[in-house]
Amino acid sequence: MPSVIWDNTFFALCCIALFLRLLLQPFLINFDSLGQENIATLVNDFVLFAIALLFIIKKLAFYENVRMPKVIWLFGLFCLVASFSCLYSIDAPSSIHYAIDLWASFFFMFVLVNLLGSVRSVEIIIGVLIILMAIASAFAIYEYLVVLPQVLAHGIPDADRGTQELLNSHRPRTLFGWPNILAGFLVITLPLAVGSFLHARLRVIKYSLVISALLGVYALFVAMTVSSWIGLLASAFIFWVAMKKPSFDKKEKHRIFFLVFLICLLLTFTILKKMTFPGMNSIDARQQYFTSSLSLIKLHPFLGSGFRSYPVASAAYVRDINGRSFFVHNSYLQIWAELGIIGLIVYLNFLWLLSKDAVVLLNGRYRPIHWLACAVIAAVGGCVADNFFSYTMIKPQVSLFWWVLVALIIALKENSAPSVYRLKLQNTWKKLFLIAAMAGVVMTMRLTQAEYDFFTAVKFIHHGEKYALAQQLCQEAKRFNPWDKKFELARAYALYSSYILDPDIHLLLQARDAALSTKGQVSLDFEREALLTKINTYLNLKYIKE
């Protein structure tokens, strides 16, 4: 009985972590959009590692075995490849940051696979995703119908990138900060709403699911992302495959056919709307992103340039179109460019094993979970298709929900047809996972504190106040995260700003030394050279006067 209580507690914490992933970022209003994203991601990673740590301690204390199918091991191997790339990455701080996020997702998926042992738990986790979809969709619709007219009428000074997108293309920022991310999230969750509607028996639940699905569809309209509709087409095809099973009666077939037809009709309407929208820069930009990724693959075909190093590596290949993207807009090309052919092969093998689990579920005859299984498989298929033109699988703000889908497929398959493979040396592996999860907790605590101090200092510098405190915060951040030189560059900016207020040559020399100490981190080249140009200008004027 105590073991069951603990499992229920961990399951509740997992659901809370999903709410935290969506809702924390908008509440960090004291920081700019990048600060919100970084801090929210690290806080969420800390929660995921903490849940995994407590879960493994419980498994050790109760002498319980864990299930680890081969597909999870392949994901772990992918995480190792991403971590190894930090050693040669041209942007090592970013590689380390995102590798930690990847490991947090690994441990979260591991916990979910072991907790989703009943139909009821699967229903709850899918229900949580649908609730999050309704919240995110309602907020996007609110921005489109209420906030957009106000912004167009009055404007917003110093608008961030999301607000600029709202002004320029009339697409809402959403809770994720960017409309494309919301669209990718809806590709994951809309099929779940449809499948849950077919699975549910209570009329109240069916009505709630219909309302949630309608909100999601309307939000997808206002997001105006064509690639997401391609993903939904893939989801509709999977539902069509499921409909052709001989075990379904005629009424069920008619229902699913109507839903598929409706999705196709909405898809056609949205594509026509997108085509008539003024401006086609997104097509030109994507072409450059694809071309740049192929150029990087040609340079580093086997090992890549380092995990999540594409923004820095692609700078020489991409013109400034609507702001340079951090993503190729094709997750598979980006994995190849960053982790080489080795990383791509590992990831494709992971997807292959996942597809085999999906086939086992589709061929099953266990009726209580069939529509839920179809919903999850359709969502995974849609996400796989969408990521040929998007980045849902690798963007931390939304990738966690992708890994939840993966955990659902693995858990459903293990519940209906357990794997022959059994993990050996259970205690050894649990202790190893315990150490890794503990290291993740410590690392995310340190990185969160460093990012919080850094973005607080950046806020002071931008507002032209508390320069001395900003310098102190940058030094504290460097102590927590010594391998990232951006803290020294921020301190250099604070020293330079102090010199503008109080022309003391020693401040200017300290600023120059701090800026020069950041050489070697390629991602800081532009900001560093811009600051050094300003500093050298003042130094030259000083020497001329003397």
Overview of this protein structure:
This protein is mostly helical and 546 residues long. The chain contains 20 helices and no strands. Helix 5 (119-154) packs antiparallel against helix 7 and helix 7 (179-199) runs antiparallel to helix 8. The protein is globular and about 85 Å long. The model has no long low-confidence stretch (mean pLDDT 85).
Helix content: over 70%
Radius of gyration over C-alpha positions, nearest whole angstrom? 25 Å
Low-confidence stretches: none
Q: How many runs of DSSP E, i.e. beta strands?
A: 0
Structural class label: mainly alpha
Distance between the termini: 82 Å
Rounded average pLDDT: 85
What is the H-and-E element order? HHHHHHHHHHHHHHHHHHHH
Largest sheet: none
Produce a short descriptive summary.
By secondary structure, this protein is mainly alpha-helical. It contains 20 helices and no strands. The longest helix is centred in the C-terminal third of the chain and has 38 residues.
How does the SSE layout of this entry go?
Blueprint: H1 2-27, H2 33-61, H3 70-84, H4 92-115, H5 119-154, H6 161-169, H7 179-199, H8 203-223, H9 226-243, H10 250-276, H11 281-299, H12 310-313, H13 331-362, H14 367-386, H15 396-416, H16 426-463, H17 467-480, H18 486-501, H19 505-516, H20 525-545
Helix pairs in contact: 1-2, 1-5, 2-4, 2-16, 3-4, 3-13, 4-15, 4-16, 5-7, 5-8, 7-8, 7-9, 7-14, 7-15, 9-10, 9-14, 11-13, 13-15, 14-15, 16-17, 16-18, 17-18, 18-19, 18-20, 19-20
